[in-house]
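Q: Could you fold this chain for me?
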Amino acid sequence: MIGEPNVAHIIGSTQKINFVLYFYLSKENITRVYSSDYLRALRTAEAIVKGSKNLTKLQIKTDVRLRERAVGVFQGKKYQDAITALLKSGGDLMGFTPQGAEKMKDVGCRMSNFFKELCTELDNGDEEQEVVVVVSHSFALIKLIDTLIKSKSYRVVHWDHSKGYKLIRNGSFIKLSLGLLKDNCEDLSTLPGQRRIEFLNLHETEHLQGLVENDTLVKFTQCTDEGKAFSGCIQS
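A: Sure. Below is the predicted structure, expressed as structure tokens.
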């Protein structure tokens, strides 16, 4: 960690699991909350704010850049349809682009632009330490992390490739520590102008134990042949 780090909880959108997140994150001294403007994500953000110590001070800031990837011809359809097509195409999660879908490169661009602006706000803020919650969606978050790892603007530590490139379960979260640029002089392994990102938890699901019945994606991978073939591409 560099100086007094900023901690970000980056959360996949959910519905019924919001109640668990409400209690799990209530011990955190959250200072900022950002969310996709999609209803499911916004409800997750609202549940987290209600459980926060700073309930009266927190305001949710929505940002369209945090939306899930538009999946073209599969928009609004069942998991089975999209996953069957994915498997037929070779099973490349990051390279799969259905007809009319948003390109993953464009998803990474909008997500990384949001992240860059957030980091700048934290650099310019008056607080020595902040806890930031960002509520987004599975494909969007995977591509954000992929973009950060490949960017020379960041030095990423404690990243696990075997866990990172998998679909994110509803209600799970990524916890990371963001170094401030002004503190780089204390970390000789970080280049000038480069921001250090340390992953503290990657796709944390401990709080979701026993709630598999509320996760549509997990149920799909357990109950259908297509899903079982795809099970290695999602979190356990």
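A (continued): DSSP finds eight helices and seven strands in the chain.
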